[in-house]
Amino acid sequence: MDKNPLSRNRWLPALGLGALAAMALSTATATAGTTAAPKQPVLEAVDWKVNTISPVTNPIFFEDPVIRSEIRPIFAYHTIDKGFLTGGGHATLYALQIRYALTDRLALIATQDGHFDIDSPGLDVDGWMDLAAGFKYALIDDAAHQFILTPGLTFHIPTGDREVFQGRGGGEWNPFISFSKGFGDLHITGNLGVRIPNTRNEQNVMAHYSLMVDYHTCRWFIPFVSANFWSSLTDGTNVPGLRSEGYDVINFGAGNANGVTQGTVGFGFRSRLLSNVDLGVAYEVAMIRPYGLTNNRLTVDMCIRF
């Protein structure tokens, strides 16, 4: 018989260590069971306006309702209807537009400058376009219903060359309103405005209205169709007898154009080359006689946003 009491109770330390181990295991299991899974990051909703595009056709007056900061070089090549007083020919426009978002709703816009060249049997001239600048303000910006409404105002400063029918009319005001409505990847964009010269004998008062439908298939190919119209509301005295006007590039001050509406239909696409660079290509044809200055037109631009 072992008379050493420590020898008789040598199992007690082992039993104590086992109990402590069991308690630790139980606590660890309970903690693991109650620990919440790590939270997944919340994805921000994509703004529907990210997939909208600026109009390519009628670039001077078809103003984008979305407030953006961008530099936009433009090239346009017109063929002139043979029934026009020049006897046909072609015209070329090189221009640059600048827009700067002062806030998320207010933007400064410079919509017209550049160089215009008319090459035809009856008229061979070239010169600088008037400068035009103003503001636009997103009055309604309803992301939940994918709708934006933006009124604005520009003024055409008579700084251009008279040889290409610029620098006339004492300047020209253009109050307008633009909108865009989204239906998922489908967007409808429109514009309505009035060109109001300070001197009515040199230039005509004209209403202009435009519509574009585009579909965002992917960033590389965003096709659209568009229509643009101009209606003369007065007669000028600058070109007596002329029954047509110069669409978006020239206000002739035609003497027999009151009540005449001219228009084009067009189609094309934009391609998002980079997250902040859109390339645009459009082809338009005149659809209402008298066709006048524009029989058809090819326009290429690039929206470089910052």
Structure overview:
The chain is mainly beta and 306 residues long. The chain has one domain (53-305): Porin. Helix content is 9%, strand content 45%. The protein has two helices and 15 strands. The chain has helices at residues 5-8, 11-34, and strands spanning 70-79, 90-101, 106-112, 115-119, 124-128, 131-137, 140-142, 147-157, 172-183, 186-197, 206-215, 222-232, 261-274, 277-286, 296-305. It has a twelve-stranded antiparallel beta barrel with strand order 1-2-3-6-8-9-10-11-12-13-14-15. A hairpin with a 2-residue loop joins strand 9 and strand 10. The protein is globular and about 55 Å long. The chain starts with a helix and ends with a strand. Mean pLDDT is 88; it is low at 1-35.
Question: What is the CA–CA distance across the termini?
Answer: 95 Å
Number of strands: 15
Uncertain segments are: 1-35
Subunit arrangement of the protein: single chain
Keywords:
2 helices; globular; 45% strand; 306 residues; mainly beta; 15 strands; twelve-stranded antiparallel barrel
Summary?
Residues 1-35 have low confidence and may be disordered. The protein is mainly beta and 306 residues long.
